UniProtKB/TrEMBL annotation:
The chain crosses the membrane at residues 131-151, 157-181. PANTHER family: ATP-DEPENDENT ZINC METALLOPROTEASE-RELATED. Signal peptide: none annotated. GO terms for molecular function: ATP binding; ATP-dependent peptidase activity; metalloendopeptidase activity. The keyword Ubl conjugation does not apply. This is Uncharacterized protein. GO terms for biological process: proteolysis. It comes from Apatococcus fuscideae. Keywords: Membrane, Transmembrane, Transmembrane helix. It comes from the Eukaryota.
């Protein structure tokens, strides 16, 4: 019953969406500066009854459904986005697919030419946040333990032992079940001044790549550790484990998976957010119908990063406008509109 109601709702939304809305509310984002993009993004309003209003209603309805119904609903979201693309409203949805993708051998030196600051950092798991967390915990508890010896009475006995036990417990958990510490490590990472910018660039790159590759984006988060949209399953409209992927699907999903890490690599020497991206890419390659040996997997990683860097450069205005919309916690419809109204030179 909910599925039928949802289809009827989407049908009405698609019929009400007209391409004229883009001509009436054109916003140009030509400079790469995020400050200017933020100013322009603030002018993007969904107050008028346009296709984007209807798109926002569709996404709001999706979020109101129980989690068990959202997988089926994502198929309807994809149909709606394709419908809006066909009538000219969403000109950039799936645009990168139209440009064509051709996998080839990519050498490490080529990554430097497309903007990667330190090509060797790709594929190397970052331990900066983990190391900083452990050093802080061990260092602070050691100081407290030493100082505790000077406390009067039994406190001088118990405090050093208790604080020392904290360090030992953290080290034991970190070496045997590091996943239990990830929440605290992610929270601790926020003390770094580049934390928010890294997360924003990373998640915006995933969303932009997904949108340009025709993936129905259903949500986003700017908080590390929170659940993010599973682009692979949204693209396939089924669980990744249920299907072997052909070469085209592998190429498309590889770009979406590595977009976040690529955006960091273009800005920073160390890529902190690539751990999850590399894990997603590995899952995709393992589901390939054509088995990949180690050499092919390494080349696939380099090629995906290479193409992602080109994508972010080709759609730089869209990328900056999307970051501005996401920074202001805009809805998915507002993010989509920011992409559509931006114009790369």
């Amino acid at each position: 019953m909910q599925s039928l109601q949802f289809r009827q709702f989407l049908k009405g939304a698609a019929l009400a969406a007209r391409p004229q809305s883009l001509r009436q509310h054109h916003v140009s984002v030509q400079r790469p500066q995020l400050a200017k993009a933020a100013s322009q993004a603030s002018q993007i309003s969904l107050a008028e009854p346009t296709a984007y209003n209807k798109l926002k209603e569709v996404y709001d309805y999706l979020q109101s459904l129980p989690p068990s119904d959202r997988q089926e609903a994502s198929n309807e979201i994809l149909s709606t986005l394709n419908s809006l693309k066909e009538d000219g409203t969403l000109k950039k949805f799936g645009k990168r697919l139209e440009d064509g993708l051709e996998r080839r051998n990519v050498f490490i030196g080529e990554l430097k030419r497309v903007g990667v600051k330190v090509p060797d950092s790709i594929g190397k798991l970052s331990v900066r946040n983990d190391a900083a967390f452990l050093i802080t915990v061990v260092g602070s508890t050691s100081v407290v333990a030493v100082a505790g010896q000077f406390l009067p009475g039994d406190w001088g006995f118990f405090v050093p032992y208790l604080t020392g036990a904290i360090s030992i417990a953290v080290l034991v958990i970190g070496s045997t079940a590091p996943g239990f510490l990830q929440f605290f490590i992610d929270k601790f990472a926020q003390i770094f001044p580049d934390y928010r910018e890294r997360v924003l660039r990373h998640e915006a790159a995933h969303m932009l790549a997904g949108y340009l590759m025709g993936v129905p984006v259903t949500g986003y988060s700017l908080d590390i550790g929170k659940a993010h949209t599973d682009f692979a399953e949204a693209k396939l409209q089924r669980s990744l484990i249920e299907k072997r992927l052909d070469e085209t699907e592998v190429d498309q999903l590889a770009l979406v998976a590595m977009a976040g890490a690529s955006s960091e690599a273009m800005k920073y020497d160390e890529v902190l957010g690539q751990n999850a991206d590399m894990s997603d890419l590995q899952r995709i390659m393992l589901r390939s119908a054509n088995k990949m040996d180690n050499a092919r997997q390494q080349n696939m990683t380099r090629w995906a990063v290479y193409e992602c860097c080109r994508l972010l450069a080709d759609y730089s205005a869209e990328y900056e406008a999307l970051q501005a919309a996401m920074k202001s916690r805009g809805s998915i419809a507002e993010c989509i509109r920011a992409i559509e109204l931006a114009s790369s030179s």
